[in-house]
Amino acid sequence: MKLEQLLKGVNVLNDISQFKNINIENISVKAEKEMNNGLFFCYKGEHNGYDLIDEAINNGAKVIIVEEYIDCNCNVVVVDDVRYSIGIIAQNFFDSANVKVIAITGTNGKTTTSFIIKSIMEKAGKKVGVIGTNGIYFGDKFLPAKLTTPDPIDLHEIFSIMKKGKVDYIVMEVSAHAIALEKIAGINFVCKILTNVTQDHLDYFKTMKKYQDTKLSFFNKDDLMVVNSDDECGKVLLRRYENAISYGIYNPSDAFCIEINKDCNSYIMNISDNVFNAKTNLFGMFNVYNCLASAVCCYYLGIGIDDIRAGLMNARAVQGRFNVINFGEKKVIIDFAHTPDGLENVLKTARLLTDGKLFCLFGCGGNRDKLKRPIMGAISEKFADYTFVTSDNPRYEDPLDIINDILAGFNKKNYYTFKDRTTAIKIAINSLKDGDTLLICGKGAENYMDIKGEKIPYSDFDVVYDAIKEIKL
Question: 464 pLDDT exceeds 90?
Answer without folding.
Answer: yes
